[in-house]
# Entry
Amino acid sequence: MDRRFSSLFLVLALFLPIGLPAGADIANNGTFAFLTEALPDGTTNAQYAARLVTVNADGPVTFIAQSALPTGITLDPLSGFITGLPTQVFNDSVSIIADDTTQQVGFSVTLKINAAGGGGNGGAGFGNTALADGQVGSVYADMLTIAGGVGPFTYGAKDLPPGVALNGQTGVLSGNPSTPGRYFVTLSAYDEGENNNAATVLPLLVLPSGSTFAFVTQSLNNGEVGTPFCDAYLVQGATGPVTFTTSGLPPGITLDPATGIASGTPTAAGTFEVVIRATDGQDTLTTNLGMLIVPSSTSNFYWNVFSLPTALLNTPYDRQPPIEAATVNGSTSVTYAASGLPSGLAYNATTGELTGTPTEIGEFNTVFTATDAMTTEVLTLEFRFVVLPVTGGDIGSTPVNFWLAKQKLKLGDDGEEAWAGGLLFNIDRRTGMGFDSALDAISLTLGSRTLNFPAGLLEGTNKSLAYKSPKGVLPTEAIKLSLAKQTLKWASKNDTLDATAPGVHLVVLKLGSSIFRTNVRFDEKAKASALSSVRPAFIVAKGKLGVGFDGEDAAKLSMLLGDESFLYETGDTLRIRILEGTTVLVDRDFTALGEGQSATDKSGKLIFRLKTIADTEVTDVIKKFSYKSDKGKLSLALSGMSLGALTNGEAHVTVELTIGDRAYTTSVTLFGKNPGKYSTSMP
# Structure
């Protein structure tokens, strides 16, 4: 081995445990090998992203390049990510060594970087090769940089640490990290000038306050269906005994919480997003990592998906070369399918190419399936597809489109606890697009506890779909859904909850392909509401439109808006836009009409009252606008509108409200009951 790489490995080895901990059963592991058989071609001045993948490791894997990589591209030795912005044409063999602390395997392949325009484009790429570390209790600051392209650029991010936000217009990362861990962040940049998307994945380390407790593990072992599997999750700097929990492990694999050893025999092939948490009695770490399971010990068939860009509302999801959710190492007879894609996006069954223009903001639980007709092998990929506002940013600062009307916990002894709540939501409810109780499932999650209601379980009509667990079955679970009124109620009794009060807990609602996710603050009485949500909450609770003659149409919207960091001063921007797809129905800036007052409540919290003075315009007239931040109630009435472009019968519209420098967006379905009359109430 070349001395320079031997030295690098020696330095890395000083920081990595040798092999797996005692108790790890590696005797039956399969053969340690590269699953990667080729690397994708790249192009100069366009972002490059790939990842080296191995299988059946007996310990933490370190990757070492034994030959020069193209200028501008770097290899992360711990995660296997190969990223960067290539600046020169390259066509040469690249040799990589993978070492799992007990053995080494080699990989050699030709890597091609074409000239801009030669098989690619002259697009933009990220200049960042790493992100600054953060620490709980300290202000975080970093900035994304772009090389190449035309601009202007809109930035997006997925899987940022809680408390860190991305400004979609400036690329500035800032905030106060609240949860320690190592987060693998997908970063995107949309170049408006070239209608092009760039994406990369970079880790962001957040240390606990006053501690060096951190994950050593930066990539997971991968496995084979039918072959015994073993992996160990490793940490350093713990102040006491460490316990581990996970979510998202492949079927057939389980975790020993005391040792952090994951073992078993995988039974399903695909890519799995695994979230790991480690607690040392003082702090809890989080990390998100992908695990691949190939169909057999003789197959290298896997999803080559590591950095799909986030999408932007009403913006083409496009790139040259194309954006693909595709596989590698299959035959020439692989076909693709997807369920749960955001509205407006299409998936090519032959190439795996993603195209289209998304028409709704949110997180979408998308399931990709690849079938190799020649071998009959099938792979699945569950993916949280993120669609951001046109201004970009990250999903953590994008409004969640559900409103927790109430939520209550009863805490005490295990088996005697309870969780109940009710909420309103906005989703696409058009015929053939919305939630179908016969085909779609519902789940509600509080921390580590999930209430699951599989497809076909709820009975009734769109006005009232309900289920309650049979008598004698514990814990008792009940749910009631009204698609007509956009309401959901649930309750569990005789339950065991991993929750504290007061405390902050993650609440997740999965309603078919729609995902609503936010951290919620419960008070000392174990109660919470939408105003306790860490993310802003914004929905259209009720809405009516009158459509008849251009210039005489009207709208009346009753909305709910909760934002714990809401700010307004008279003179701040006020703007309302209503769109159906990319068709703008209303775009009215009414900043000059705004009047605001602020005060503090008994607890010292700042509250706001907004209203408008009389409007002298004759089109898109603001008849009424009022907001009370402590109640969350927002009313808007307009007249003098022209809504003739609205789709007859069922229209799924986006409401975008800008207050100051913040844009709140939601999408709601309106139904035409009578000629010229639309409302949110489903017939």
User: Anything to note?
Assistant: The chain has one helix and 58 strands. The first strand starts at residue 33 and ends at 34. The two ends are 72 Å apart (CA to CA).
